[in-house]
C-alpha cells in the first residue's frame, strides 16, 4: 500500500501559488460555479488568498454553491459514544490510554438502549456511533450495539440511520458491519502529515499511518458505499490538510468511481489532561475555518460537509451559509451521558451546548429547514448511485420534500409549540418544489403525517 499523499507535491503547489494568488482567483471561482469541482492547483490558489475582498468573493461563491445544491436544508444528527476505553495514546485526546482520572466505561446492551431512547426522545433519527479503540469493541459487540439501536422504539420514534466512527477493521469485519445496515463509515486521518502523525500517535494500532489511510478503501471494498473522511484541524498546517483531503477524495474517486460521501472538519478542542489539545500546534482561527469550509465547498461541491458542536453557536450560524450540510446538535461526548449515567468527562469540550430543540428553533428562525431524512440509503441511493443523481441536480427532487416531511414529523412529535411559528415557512418551501407532481405528493404526505402516519419519504 503506497502513500498516495505526496507531501512534496502539496508543498510545491502551495509554494508555486503563493505569489499573488489573487491574480488567478477570479477564474478559479468562475470555474467552481460550474459545480464540477477544482484541481489541487486551483485549490492551492484559493488557500493562499489572504486578501479580504478576494476572501469575500470565495465566501459568496461558496454560499451560491451551497444554495444551489443543498438549498436551505441542514441534516441533523447526534453522536452516541459506546466506550472511552482506549488502547491508543493519541496525544490530543481525553480518552487516550494513559489519561488519568477518567472512569473507563464500555456501554452494555441495556445502557445502549437507554442512550438511544434518550436521543429518540429529543427527536433524533440519525446517530453517529463513536467509540475509542479497545479489544472489547470488536465486530461482535458492534453488531449487537447496532441491532439494539435499530430495535429501540420510543413513542413514535426510532433511529433510522446509524453512521459509524470507530477504529478501522479488516475486510471480513467491514462486510459484517455493512450487513448491520449502517449508513456511512467515517474515519479521520487526524493529520495527513506523516511525521506529525507519527509524533502524535506513538503507540497502539493507530500508530500505523498507512493502515489508517487505507481504511476507507477497505470499507468500500467490503461494500460500504458511503465513507466519510476528515482531518483534525490544529495539528498541522491547515492548507496542507485541505489539499491532502482533496488528494484523498481523488484517490477514492479513482479507485471506486465515487469520492467520499462526507468530509468532516473538526477543530482541536481542549481535552482533559492533554496539553496539545489546549495549545494546538497549528491553531486554526475562526476566519481560517471559514476559509477551509468555503474552499472545500468550491472544490468538492457534492460532498457533504459535517460540522460538530465543537464550534460555538455563533460561528456555526455563519458556517451554515458557507457550505456545511450536516450538523450535530444536543451532543455529549462521554459514554452514558444522555441518559444521565455518565460520570466521566467527555472526549473533548463542546462549545455549542444548546439542546436540539433550541438549535432547531434557531435554524427555522433563519429560514433553514432542519432535516432528519434517512431516505437515500434506505432506498439504495448510496455511493455512485447517489452521485449519479446528485450531479445533474436530481437529488433535489428527493431531498427537499424529504426534509419537509421529516421536519413536520419532528414538529408534531417533539416540538408542537413550534408548529404554528413555522407553518408559513413550510408552506412557502412546498410551493418552491419545482415539479408540480412532487409538490402535490408532498402536500398529501404532510397531510397524512398530520393525521398520524409516520416515516413517509420519497
Ligand atoms: N477512536 C477512533 C478514532 O480515533 O478514530 C474513533 C473515534 S474518536 C473517538 C473520534 C474523533 O475525535 C477522532 O478521530 C479525532 O479526530 C477527534 N478528537 C480526538 N480528540 C479531540 C480533541 N481534543 N478535540 C477535537 N476532536 C478530537
Ligand atoms: Fe482513542 Fe480515538 Fe481518542 Fe485516539 S482519538 S485516544 S484512538 S478515542
Describe this structure in words.
This protein is an alpha/beta fold and 458 residues long. It has 3 domains: 60 residues, no CATH class; 316 residues, Aldolase class I (TIM Barrel), CATH 3.20.20.70; 58 residues. Helices cover 47% and strands 9% of the residues. It contains 20 helices and 11 strands. The strands form 2 sheets. Strands 1, 2, 5, 6, 7, 8, 9, 10 and 11 form a 9-stranded parallel sheet that branches. Strand 3 and strand 4 form a beta hairpin. The relative contact order is 0.14. The structure holds S-adenosylmethionine (SAM) and iron/sulfur cluster (SF4). The site of S-adenosylmethionine has 20 residues, from loops.
State the main characteristics.
458 residues, alpha/beta, TIM Barrel, 3 domains, nine-stranded parallel sheet, 20 helices, binds S-adenosylmethionine, binds iron/sulfur cluster
Strand-helix topology:
Blueprint: H1 7-16, H2 22-32, H3 40-47, H4 52-70, E1 73-81, H5 109-122, E2 126-130, H6 139-151, E3 153-154, E4 157-158, E5 161-165, H7 171-179, E6 185-186, H8 194-200, H9 209-213, H10 215-221, E7 227-230, H11 238-256, E8 262-264, H12 275-278, H13 286-299, E9 304-307, H14 313-322, E10 326-328, H15 356-365, E11 369-371, H16 375-378, H17 383-390, H18 396-414, H19 423-431, H20 436-451
Bound molecules: S-adenosylmethionine and iron/sulfur cluster.
CATH superfamily of the largest domain: Aldolase class I
Helix and strand composition category? alpha/beta
CATH level 1 class label of the largest domain: Alpha Beta
CATH architecture tag of the largest domain: Alpha-Beta Barrel
**Bound ligands:** S-adenosylmethionine, iron/sulfur cluster
β-sheet strand percentage: 5-15%
Low-confidence stretches at least 5 residues in length (pLDDT < 50)? none
Oligomer: single chain
CATH topology of the largest domain: TIM Barrel
Distance between the ends? 41 Å
Biggest pleated-sheet summary: 9 strands, parallel
Amino acid at each position: 500500500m503506497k502513500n498516495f499523499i505526496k507531501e512534496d507535491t502539496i508543498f510545491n503547489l502551495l509554494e508555486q501559488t503563493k505569489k499573488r494568488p489573487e491574480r488567478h482567483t477570479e477564474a478559479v471561482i468562475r470555474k467552481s460555479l460550474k459545480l464540477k469541482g477544482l484541481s489541487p492547483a486551483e485549490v492551492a490558489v484559493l488557500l493562499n488568498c489572504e486578501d479580504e475582498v478576494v476572501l469575500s468573493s470565495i465566501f459568496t461563491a461558496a454560499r451560491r454553491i451551497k444554495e444551489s445544491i443543498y438549498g436551505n436544508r441542514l441534516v441533523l444528527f447526534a453522536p452516541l459514544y459506546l466506550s472511552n476505553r482506549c488502547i491508543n495514546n493519541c496525544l490530543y485526546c481525553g480518552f487516550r490510554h494513559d489519561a488519568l482520572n477518567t472512569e473507563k466505561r464500555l456501554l452494555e446492551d441495556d445502557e445502549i438502549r437507554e442512550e438511544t431512547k434518550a436521543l429518540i426522545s429529543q427527536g433524533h433519527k440519525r446517530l453517529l456511533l463513536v467509540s475509542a479503540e479497545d479489544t472489547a469493541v470488536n465486530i461482535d459487540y458492534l453488531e449487537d450495539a447496532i441491532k439494539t439501536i435499530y430495535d429501540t422504539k420510543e413513542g413514535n420514534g426510532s433511529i433510522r440511520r446509524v453512521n459509524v466512527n470507530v477504529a478501522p477493521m479488516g475486510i471480513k469485519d467491514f462486510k459484517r458491519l455493512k450487513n448491520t445496515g449502517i449508513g456511512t463509515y467515517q474515519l479521520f486521518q487526524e493529520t495527513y502529515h506523516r511525521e506529525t502523525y507519527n509524533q502524535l500517535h506513538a503507540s497502539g494500532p493507530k500508530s500505523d499511518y498507512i493502515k489508517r489511510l487505507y481504511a476507507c478503501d477497505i470499507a468500500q471494498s467490503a461494500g460500504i458505499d458511503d465513507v466519510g473522511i476528515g482531518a483534525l484541524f490544529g495539528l498541522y498546517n491547515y492548507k496542507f490538510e485541505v489539499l491532502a483531503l482533496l488528494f484523498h477524495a481523488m484517490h477514492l474517486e479513482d479507485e471506486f468511481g465515487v469520492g467520499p460521501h462526507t468530509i468532516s472538519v473538526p477543530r482541536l478542542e481542549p481535552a482533559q489532561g492533554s496539553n496539545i489539545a489546549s495549545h494546538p500546534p497549528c491553531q486554526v482561527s475562526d476566519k481560517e475555518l471559514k476559509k477551509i469550509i468555503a474552499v472545500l465547498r468550491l472544490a468538492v461541491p457534492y460532498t457533504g460537509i459535517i460540522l460538530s458542536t465543537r464550534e460555538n453557536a455563533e460561528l456555526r450560524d455563519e458556517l451554515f451559509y458557507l457550505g456545511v450540510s450536516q450538523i450535530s446538535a444536543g451532543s455529549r461526548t462521554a459514554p452514558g451521558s444522555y441518559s444521565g449515567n455518565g460520570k466521566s468527562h467527555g472526549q473533548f469540550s463542546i462549545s455549542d451546548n444548546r439542546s436540539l430543540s433550541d438549535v432547531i428553533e434557531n435554524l427555522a428562525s433563519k429560514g433553514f429547514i432542519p432535516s432528519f431524512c434517512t431516505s437515500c440509503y434506505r432506498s439504495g441511493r448510496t455511493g455512485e448511485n447517489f452521485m449519479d443523481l446528485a450531479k445533474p441536480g436530481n437529488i433535489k427532487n428527493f431531498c427537499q420534500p424529504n426534509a419537509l416531511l421529516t421536519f413536520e414529523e419532528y414538529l408534531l412529535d417533539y416540538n408542537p409549540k413550534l408548529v404554528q411559528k413555522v407553518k408559513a415557512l413550510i408552506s412557502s418551501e412546498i410551493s418552491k418544489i419545482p415539479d408540480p407532481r412532487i409538490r402535490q405528493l408532498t402536500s398529501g404526505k404532510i397531510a397524512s403525517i398530520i393525521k398520524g402516519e409516520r416515516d413517509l419519504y420519497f
